[in-house]
Amino acid sequence: MTPETALALIGFAFVMSISPGPGNFLLLASGANFGFRRTVPTVLGISLGFLAMVFLIGIGLGEVLERFPVVTVALKFACGAYVIWLALKIARSRALGPSASDRIETPVCFVQAALLQLLNPKAWAVALILTVSYTSQADYLASLVAMIAVFAVVNIPSISVWAISGTALRGVLAQGNRIAVFNVAMAVLLVFSMAPMLLRG
């Protein structure tokens, strides 16, 4: 990978990682409810789930999706159902405040977070862009692995900012019923952030 390509990849990875999206809204909510330390598995699940997808696309899964459009349609339905389930999980969470101690939920685990990416049509689109734009046909597999490594170095700290931001809000959200309102807002944002991709033909 040339320095110019690496620099372009770093910029692309940062913009894609830091911008609002379903994974980042999930991290913001998890950080606010459970703190950063307990959200680390969610961070790693979101990042490694996406990077696993990039690898699968890179070794040929993208061609399968293009050849069999029904798989893409099934992916959208599965994604929609899963996002609604996650949104309900967030909306019901009451991890802060003494009056809600009997309704504490656990954070979204590593596997659940990874599945969000694997069922995310936007993530599939970004994975396709990465494998087409930032790999070299001359030494394809090595360039694919190098690209994934560079993306990971940028992605994990970038998405962690959302979990850290949520953690910073814990003091404010612990007062009264604010965490309940916050969680419902995060659940709505999670669903709406996926709606354009799910409804697009």
Structure, described:
By secondary structure, the chain is an all-alpha fold. It has one domain. The chain is built from 8 helices and no strands. The relative contact order is 0.23.
Pick out its properties:
201 residues, mainly alpha, 0% strand
Judged by helices, strands and strand pairing, the structural class is mainly alpha
- Number-wise, the strands total 0
Calculate the mean pLDDT score and round it: 81
Give the low-pLDDT segments: 97-102
Largest sheet: none
Radius of gyration: 18 Å
Number of helices, where a helix is a run of at least 4 consecutive DSSP H or I residues: 8
Helix-strand sequence: HHHHHHHH
Q: What's the domain count?
A: 1
Our measurement of the CA-to-CA distance between the termini, rounded to an integer number of angstroms, reads 35 Å
Q: Which percent band covers the strand fraction?
A: under 5%
What share of the residues lie within helices? Answer: over 70%
Q: What is the 3D form?
A: globular
Short description:
The protein is an all-alpha fold and 201 residues long. The chain contains eight helices and no strands.
Topology:
Layout: H1 3-18, H2 22-67, H3 69-92, H4 110-118, H5 121-133, H6 140-168, H7 170-173, H8 178-199
Helix pairs in contact: 1-6, 2-3, 2-4, 2-5, 2-6, 2-8, 3-8
